[in-house]
Specification:
Number of strands: 7
Structural class: alpha+beta
Radius of gyration: 18 Å
Strand content: 15-25%
CATH superfamily of the largest domain: Jelly Rolls
CATH architecture of the largest domain: Sandwich
CATH topology of the largest domain: Jelly Rolls
Largest sheet: 7 strands, mixed
Length: 250
């Protein structure tokens, strides 16, 4: 598993998931084919799929695949959220010939990430989705990215909004409620803690979850698998660090 900024790339076997949705857009390339179900068009087997943010879906198992998660704040993710409606476009013809290394080095992972991203960006107008958001929402996201707490009253007052209006603007701009956004960021923090060597209980506490069971419930809701499947058994590597940066994921 590799992460860089707002992007997470996984290469390896895929476990079958339960029905779930998440804040990130998900791009799957499975050369051997993979069963997908999005709840709208039934089951489909395809070798590639682009799954927009917040779309309920599930997929089967396969021995080797690449999965790219784009955080909801990523410009490409926002473009996919705006340009794609209804069932996931599982045909994704632009992706079917992407070469997936067996055990990629950081350089190979960086190339694979860039290739997948370029193919997807060729099908959507990223520029339409990457404009500035409301400054109050930007400040709120910055607070929530750093900690669980944000002074909603103060930020709303600075923006000339009531707390209720602030919540509405946040949901409209981000596509999630503040509570759902915070849940996603906590999951990213938990992954960073596991990467640093923490066990699941310690990672849950570090990320702001009540306990390991709380982390497990939220993780399964978001990814359709358990934290043991998604965190403990996977090596996390930071592409940014290979460029001389120690920056953690968002």
């Amino acid at each position: 598993m590799f992460h860089s900024g707002t992007r997470i790339l996984y290469v390896g076997p895929l476990a079958a998931t339960t029905r779930h949705s998440h804040h990130a857009a998900q791009i799957v390339v499975a050369p051997q084919g993979l069963d997908f179900e999005d709840g709208a068009s039934g089951r489909t087997r395809a070798s590639a799929a682009v799954i927009p943010p917040r779309l309920h879906h599930r997929h089967g198992a396969c021995t080797h695949a690449a999965v790219l998660f784009l955080d909801g704040d990523d410009p490409t993710s926002r473009a996919l959220a705006r340009s794609t409606e209804g069932p996931c476009p599982t045909l994704a013809r632009e992706l079917v010939d992407v070469d997936i290394p067996g055990d990629p080095t950081p350089e190979q992972a960086r190339t694979l990430l860039a290739t997948i991203l370029a193919r997807v960006q060729g099908a959507v107008d990223v520029r339409e989705s990457s404009g500035p958001r409301h400054p109050a929402v930007r400040r709120m996201c910055a607070y929530l990215d750093r900690s669980d707490a944000a002074d909603l009253d103060s930020l709303a007052q600075q923006a000339g909004l009531s707390p209720r209006q602030m919540r509405h603007v946040f949901a409209r701009e981000v596509g999630l409620s503040m509570r759902a956004y915070l849940r996603w960021k906590r999951l990213i923090r938990a992954a960073a803690a596991v990467e640093a060597g923490a066990g699941l209980s310690a990672a849950a506490a570090a990320a702001g979850f009540a306990d390991c069971a709380h982390l497990s419930r939220v993780f399964r809701d978001q990814f359709g698998i358990t934290p043991t499947q998604g965190l403990r058994s996977i090596r996390w590597r930071t592409l940014d660090e290979t460029r001389g940066s120690s920056r953690p994921p968002p």
